[in-house]
Write the structure tokens for this entry.
Amino acid sequence: MDDPLDVFADAMLADPIDGEVATAVAAHVQALWRYRRRIRRSRLGRRRHIGSVPGCRPNKNRDFRSGLRAILRDYFGLDGSPLVYDEADFERRFRVPRSVFLRIYHAVKGRPFFAQRINATGRSQAHPSQKVVAAFRVIAYGEAPDRTDEYVRLSASTIVMSVRELLRFTVDELGPACLRPPTPAELERILERNAQRGLPGCMGSLDCSHWELANCPKAFAGMYQNRHGKRSVVMETVCDEDLWIWHLIVGCPGSQNDLNVMHASPLYLSVTGGEWPPGTFSYTAKAPLARSCIIW
């Protein structure tokens, strides 16, 4: 901003007839100049953020190596020692077999977030296995992120990011292979197995369950209230005896029963419209009964 004296002189010279307007403009500019100087002085006295300074809360010394050592000792064997927890314990706590866990680990360990990095001091940060284990434990148990801090030695924010990145990888990489309807060959195999079990024409088990909403908006409270008086959404799922979930729809209000949810399901609409399943299968029952026996 120019000096007030220069502005006042310019205003006076530009408007020699109406001096009152020039005086008012100059007074206004001078007031703005004083205000700017006062703000500048206040900023000079303010403490600026310059990173780690004395008096701030220090970072926790989590000792990443101890978390990695505990994971290897308990589930993979450290230095040739026997495992603390066997295959059954691993599958119960991670909800997947060890082979599936290792396959996902090797697929994500090269991603930018999961890769092990070196900080500014030259020290190694958390190992990829710590982030993957933390994400699996949070997903398996539905617990708070900081519950696994003492075991994997990671902060809550890092564990939250690990869960988000692992779910993003699952949707992007495994979605096309897992979140799909069965192929004709797979459908033929499913029908053959169910026929041997005494369920001819049955492709899977369909069921609806309610997922309670923790923060349901008040405007939708009545629409999402189920028969137990709680707010929830309905999940429609179809799976086979191998627990392969090949149909999932979530979002119907909890006030709807299973029949209403099925009538709004894309699966039911595709079956009644003749779009699915493939027309290479024949049924001995009548048409309405055949459609009802497709899914149990």
